[in-house]
Amino acid sequence: MRLLVSRHLENFLALYQTLNMHAAAEAKNISQPALTKSLKLLEKQVGMPLFHRTPRGLEPTPAGTTMYQYARQIDQAARFAAIDLQQSMTTGLLSIGIGPILAVSIFPAIITVFHRRHPGLRIKVETGISSHLIEGLAREHYDFVVTALPEEPLPKTMVSLPLYRSRMVAIGRADHPLAAIGGTVETLAAYGRVGFLEDREFEKRALRALGPRAEALRPAVQTSSMAIMFGMLMATDHFAIIGEMMLPRAVSEGLVKLPVPHAFWEIEIGLVCKAVLASSPAISAIRSALLASSHYPQVLAAGKRPGG
């Protein structure tokens, strides 16, 4: 199925993703002169430069960025066609974005099984908060993302395939002052929240659920690392608010659920992809694996929530 994508387009994708001639040549297993010739042929067809050379490496021109968006779509269509027609992916790269809830719960086991079935496929998995993942999907950085769905409607080019609902809970170390006696949102605020960096969705949900009380949950510390978050919670009286599906991992790190009744909200977790890929057997297989691998009681009914 790679015949659907020209080698010049594949070479261009490698150049855009590495922004380095040497690294791209190694990735494609060709010489740098051959890669340079391939780029020149493509630029001749386009009629303008696709990269500028700088001391730091290659820098895409506006034409190069536009070309990348279309090249990624062509490459993605070819890779998913390979799955749909052959039920096996033997080459190429699958880029996945995962929210922290699934990243520390069921997703590692799922992607391990998937890779065993497609051993020739290179898989890139990145974690991030939902707003960053959706933005990355819009920029063709990911083939699909699995994350908490944002408050705003998705772009019309995307759909979300429902997976789970997860309650938000407060966690802290086992000897946290509130572990035995519990507390309220205002009580928690005295200990300082550890939150994810630039988590705008959290702020929106907190405001909608708690109104003015949400101000008490503004983070004292922000990080993009789950390991740092858990480490800080074990070393201090800070607390965090996480999806309930993450509790088993938190407990394995020595943390506990803090008794703060009726204080928080639920989030919906879904697989988000381009609308044109929603019915793909590949997407269906991954979604089925996500649903089958969870013993979480609040699995959503089958169906999809359209974007836009």
Architecture (CATH level 2) name of the domain at 167-266: 3-Layer(aba) Sandwich
- Which quaternary structure do these chains form? single chain
Quote the average pLDDT.
85
Number of strands: 12
CATH fold name of the domain at 167-266: D-Maltodextrin-Binding Protein, domain 2
So what's the overall shape? elongated
Q: Percentage of helical residues? A: 40-55%
Radius of gyration: 22 Å
Major sheet size, sense and barrel closure: 8 strands, mixed
* CATH H-tier superfamily of the domain at 167-266: Periplasmic binding protein-like II
| Highest-level CATH class of the domain at 167-266 | Alpha Beta
- Report strand %: 15-25%
Low-confidence stretches: 296-308
Helix/strand/pairing category = alpha/beta
Order of helices and strands: HHHEEHEHHEHEEHHEHEHEHEEHE
> What is the CA–CA distance across the termini?
32 Å
Walk me through what this model shows.
By secondary structure, this protein is of the alpha/beta class. Among the domains are: 1-86, Orthogonal Bundle (Arc Repressor Mutant, subunit A), CATH 1.10.10; 167-266, Periplasmic binding protein-like II (D-Maltodextrin-Binding Protein, domain 2). The chain is 43% helix and 22% strand. The protein has 13 helices and 12 strands. It has helices at residues 7-18, 21-28, 32-46, 62-86, 100-103, 107-117, 130-138, 178-181, 185-189, 200-210, 226-235, 247-252, 281-292; strands at 51-54, 57-60, 93-98, 122-127, 144-148, 158-173, 193-196, 219-223, 240-243, 255-257, 266-274, 305-306. The strands form 3 sheets. Strands 3, 4, 5, 6, 9, 10, 11 and 12 form an 8-stranded mixed beta sheet that branches. A two-stranded antiparallel ribbon has the order 1-2. A hairpin with a 2-residue loop joins β1 and β2. The longest helix is centred in the N-terminal third of the chain and has 25 residues, at 62-86.
